[in-house]
Amino acid sequence: MKKVLVILFALFLVACGPAEPQVLRLATTTSTNDSGLLEAILPAFEEANNATVEVVAVGTGQAISLGEAGDADVILVHARSREDTFVEAGHGTERSDVMYNDFVLVGPTDDPAGVQGMEIAADALQKIADAQANFASRGDDSGTHTKEKSLWEAAGITPDPDSGWYHSVGQGMGSTLTFANENGDYTLADRGTFLSMRDNIPDLAVMVGGESIADNVDEALLNPYGVIPVNPDKSDAINYDLAVKFVDWLTSVETQQVISEFGVDKFGQPLFYPDSEPWHNR
């Protein structure tokens, strides 16, 4: 009888089949996607949680808007003041530090504005504007675009898209770097995406920020990332429990260790630096 019950139970499990994977909707920035980071780390989360992560890689502004509309379960972005506002307004439940890298000002290798080696990005932007040298802006309400606008403000300049030298591309980081490479433009980029694309943009070089984050003395160029579960009160479709699991996994020491090693073998430096509370308390 016992053997029969075992067989019946086994047949029941076969009939039921494996459980359908849960779906996690992740709204994030183009930099986490274009750099290859998500491709490197997400399979481990999916396997451990029988989940499929649907990634929507857009600018930070768009990612935040998706969260506000309840069209994402969790957001991973890089514009701290906007992240804090998102939580304060009740769109997200809590922000957690994840990682950081930095921005670099890159430009054509012949450097027509003569800014290579300058330490402060706002000062370099002043020289670029004075020379009316070509500049490509993402122009997409992303975290990088937000940072760029703050740097122009620090320089006391409001670039005019009709000036002929300032180009608002309206694209993600990868497309903007490609445009700058082909058009001989300066642009602001996160270092991770720039390094990951370096072989495809041979006519661009770092102008401000140095060869690694250790060389970057301009604190305005630091680039922290935060992760926020979307408030489940916004929509019945939000998978809040899985979003919380994702935050716990992303900030765990094990995943942070993977982040700390990503890119080192190819570039001699990580593309992102771990910054979660569990990492710092390990």
Features:
D-Maltodextrin-Binding Protein, domain 2; 282 residues; alpha/beta; ten-stranded mixed beta sheet
State the CATH superfamily name of the largest domain. Periplasmic binding protein-like II
Just name the CATH architecture of the largest domain. Answer: 3-Layer(aba) Sandwich
Q: What is the H-and-E element order?
A: HEHHEHEHEHEHEHEHEEHHHEH
Number of helices: 13
Percent helix, as a range, is 40-55%
Q: Which fold name is given in CATH as the topology of the largest domain?
A: D-Maltodextrin-Binding Protein, domain 2
Topology (SSEs and partners):
Elements: H1 2-16, E1 22-29, H2 30-34, H3 37-49, E2 51-58, H4 60-68, E3 74-77, H5 80-88, E4 96-108, H6 121-131, E5 135-137, H7 143-154, E6 166-168, H8 173-183, E7 186-190, H9 191-197, E8 204-208, E9 222-229, H10 240-250, H11 253-261, H12 264-267, E10 273-274, H13 277-280
Parallel strand pairs: 1-2, 1-3, 5-6, 5-7
Antiparallel strand pairs: 3-9, 4-7, 4-8, 4-9, 4-10
Helix pairs in contact: 6-7
